[in-house]
Amino acid sequence: MQRNHLVVERDYHHVGVAERATAPIPEPLAVSPAFLSMPNWTVEETADYCRCQAQTIRKALSLSGTFWGLKPRRFGRRWLFNAAEVRAAVEGR
Fold first, then answer.
1. If you ran DSSP here, which 8-state letter would residue 34 be given?
2. How many CA atoms, within 13 angstroms, populate the side-chain half-sphere of residue 31?
3. Which of 2, 16, 43, 69 has the fewest CB within 10 Å, making it most exposed?
4. Residue 69 Rama label (left phi>0; alpha psi -120 to 50; beta)
5. Coil/strand/helix, residue 82
6. What digits encode the pLDDT tens for the residues 9-38?
7. What is the end-to-end Cα distance of the chain in Å, rounded?
8. In angstroms, how far is CA 39 from the centroid of its own chain?
9. What CATH number labels 28-91?
10. How crowded is the C-beta side of 79, counted as CA atoms within 13 Å?
11. Residue partners of 59: CB distance under 8 A and separation at least 6
12. What's the pLDDT at 32?
């Protein structure tokens, strides 16, 4: 009788980290996304602009109520950030 053996990855967890660390930073998009012209951005749009994940922003909002000192407004079930404030925060003004 033949058994199916699972391959156990031992000491291979570092391989993915090294590859990610040396990966090049993606170039900016040639065509700017449509949301850049909007006055308010959702969490997902803000995350795209800041090059982070939306969950990072949601976690910061749940812990401190702000993300990089930005306080979003509530519109229904959505959090909306002022686009001008996000741009200023990213550019360091």
1. G
2. 2
3. 2
4. left
5. strand
6. 454 455 555 555 565 655 655 546 677 777
7. 69
8. 20
9. 1.10.1660
10. 20
11. none
12. 61
